[in-house]
Amino acid sequence: MLRLLAGLYVCCCSWLCWGAPHWETIQTEHFNVHYTKGHQAWAQAAAQELEIVRDIVLVQQNRSLPSVADVVVFDPYHGANGFALPSTDNPLMALFTTPPQSDTVISNHHSWLQLLILHEYVHLVHLSQPTRHRFRQLIRDISDIYDLTSAMMPRWVAEGYATLLESKITGRGRLFDNYSEAIIREFARQGALPTYAQLNGGDNRYLSDSMAYLLGARFLAWLESTYSEQKLDAVWTRMQAVKKRDFEDAFQGIFNLSAAVLYQRFTAEYTYQTMQVAAKRAPLNDTLWTTTKFSVHSPALSPDKRLLAVIERDAQGRSHLNVYSTSDNAEAKKKVCRTTKTAA
Fold first, then answer.
1. Closest CA to 36 of 17, 62, 53
2. 73: which of 43, 179, 206, 285 fits an S-S bond (Cβ 3.0–4.6 Å)?
3. 10 CB contacts (<8 Å, ≥6 apart)?
4. Looking at the domain assignment, is residue 336 inside a domain?
């Protein structure tokens, strides 16, 4: 809910900053695509892709949106993102046009437009299905707030499922990305995979905010391969039954075990497989060159190779541009030697 409200806040701020820009709309059979000057070509391509994605998801899921969806195409802060507001009568998605950089976990795609539309459309189809309880659905039709809150699922479920389908349908995405897989396997090797309670993210650990996508998708894929796609799909149907059930109740009714218990089995199996692979690899003949406190990306050497510039981000999300010398650090070597002698 906080992420959705944050997305709305971004939209409002952008509209205010633009000074009431002139909006135009492309109407297709199932979507109204709204855009401003400078985004016409992107919006036209999005309108075509939206109808293609709808047909693909309809075949794959046997589900579609119950009403025409509004799609807003804009670029509020030059970041690769988007969001969806699920609703049975007023579904909305926002598409940010800036593509991701190549060193991010969302860079494995044929087309940023395709990946983004597929991910956000799956959100709408997954979360906007009407309930079979007539009175509750009547309230959802009357109250947008009730409609929105009724569509909510745990973050790892919503993001994990959209990530799973983005990957299964395209053959790319975060489930099949070597970079994402390497990150998760390193967490497993260190015994640092998040617990079920931590899966929704937000505990200031490295990439904890991304685990709902990366690990959530892998857990759901494990459920499909261990049991069946139909069994997992039945959870979503059961959530919209006449009897009101949240995700945990619906899940346990289908699998006869809680999601937390099966997640423990998944992480145990994943860790075991990771350690088996690690045991077969020859030790690396490497030397530690430097350490950082949180994350580093976009390294660039100076023309003479004497300086290295990197962007470092701390646990609070603050970014810094730091420049290091590539020459030997004599003081650091002395410190290491003194520490070694003291320990001996």
1. 17
2. 43
3. 76, 77
4. yes
For the cut 80, the answer to whether the pLDDT of residue 10 exceeds it is: no
pLDDT in tens, 149-203: 888 899 999 999 999 999 999 999 999 999 999 999 999 999 999 999 999 987 7
Q: Quick one: 15 and 57 in the same domain?
A: yes
Looking at 152, 168, 184, the residue that finishes a domain is 152
Residues whose CB is less than 8 angstroms from the CB of residue 125 and which lie 6 or more positions away in sequence, other chains included: 57, 61, 63, 64, 65
The torsion of the CA quartet 46, 49, 55, 61, rounded to 10 degrees, works out to -80
Residues 44 and 29 in one domain: yes
Asked if residue 104 lies in contact with residue 98, where contact means CB atoms within 8 angstroms, the answer is no
Select the more confidently predicted residue: 277 or 286: 277
Residue 277 to residue 246: CA distance in whole angstroms? 38
Give the pLDDT band of residue 341 (cuts 50, 70, 90). low
What is the C-alpha separation between 106 and 118, in angstroms, rounded? 13
Whether residue 91 sits in one domain with residue 68? yes
Crossing angle for the helix pair 40-61 and 155-170, to the nearest 10 degrees: 90
Determine the structural domain holding residue 95 and report its residue range: 1-152
Q: Residues with Cβ < 8 Å from 9, sequence gap 6 or more?
A: none
In 3D space, the residue among 83, 154, 71 whose CA is nearest the CA of residue 119 turns out to be 83
State the amino acid at position 159 in one-letter form.
E
